[in-house]
Amino acid sequence: MIISMKKQVLAAGFVLSSFFVLPLKASAANFSQIYAFGDSLVDTGNAYNFIKTTTGVEFPPSPPYFDGHFSNGPIWVEGLSSALGITQTNFAFGGATTGTLNTVNGNLPGLAQQIQGFTTANSQADSKALYVIWAGANDYRAGVINPAEPVNNLINAVKSLASVGAEHFLLVNLPNLGALPGTSNNPTVSAGLTALSTAHNSGLAAGINTLNQQPDIHVTLLDANSLFNKAIASPGEFGYTNVTDACLTITSPTSFTTCPNPNEYLFWDQLHPTTYTHSFLAGAALVAVPESSPALGVLALGALGTVGVLKKRQRTH
Hints:
The chain is built from eleven helices and nine strands. The chain has helices at about 5-25, 45-55, 75-85, 110-120, 135-140, 150-165, 185-210, 225-235, 235-240, 275-290, 295-315, and strands spanning about 35-40, 90, 130-135, 170, 220, 240-245, 250, 255-260, 265. The protein is α/β, with parallel strands linked by helices. It has a single domain (about 5-315), classed as Rossmann fold, CATH 3.40.50. A hairpin with a 2-residue loop joins strand 7 (about 250) and strand 8 (about 255-260). Helix 3 crosses helix 10 (about 275-290). The strands form three sheets. It has a five-stranded parallel β-sheet with strand order 2-1-3-4-5, sandwiched between helices. It has a two-stranded parallel ribbon with strand order 6-9.
């Protein structure tokens, strides 16, 4: 009998939760730590902390957002560091483009400034650390129409980190920006962003192949685009009931409504995934990183994806 993907994921999750959590951490990568750079898909509270400190405003408002995150709970890079059993130092800021512009607040850094700040402070980087980079969506939302520009910025970010001794990188491509709740309702905008997303991902893959020809640079691609495409094409296999709308609706800074079942939604707001979706990204990242065990990574994918379901069931009993 063929078992559905959803049942496999749930079963793997229960197995890992019951038996393999400690062995996973013990036998996983030899990475010493994670350094994370990028935008709101990586930011664990940096933009929120800066804006609240300097202006007194809570952005993103927490609640309904979780602890300064651009989601309703922890995000994928936190899940990855937890699964690997290593610490994570986060330099990402919501609104960051791959260059120097930040679309949330002009005083916040883009990716280029995050990287420059790190290399200035670290003349000798940790060669055993994993350097995570995810950015690009804000470039296209800000009007960039030449994918070579963001892609080159991402490649240069790797080169800059490598120049101070970084060796291991995890780069993430873009989901289809034309399929986001905030863009899919406009056919012209959606088609344009879909084309840019495709071109960006193609250029990034080519750039990564070139980088990997250098002996001391090891770049792994996390294919977020494929994961999102699969979820949209077969939502039931992931446990989703809605892959087109946002769970959260904000009508004013103090007025919002949330769906009753966020763990069944792909998207939390108009642009960002739910923490349940982030759990799948974390599992996919664990499978992708070369030093982790593929078998344990598959189990982790199931366990991470099961967390939201278990929490939801606990709340209803």
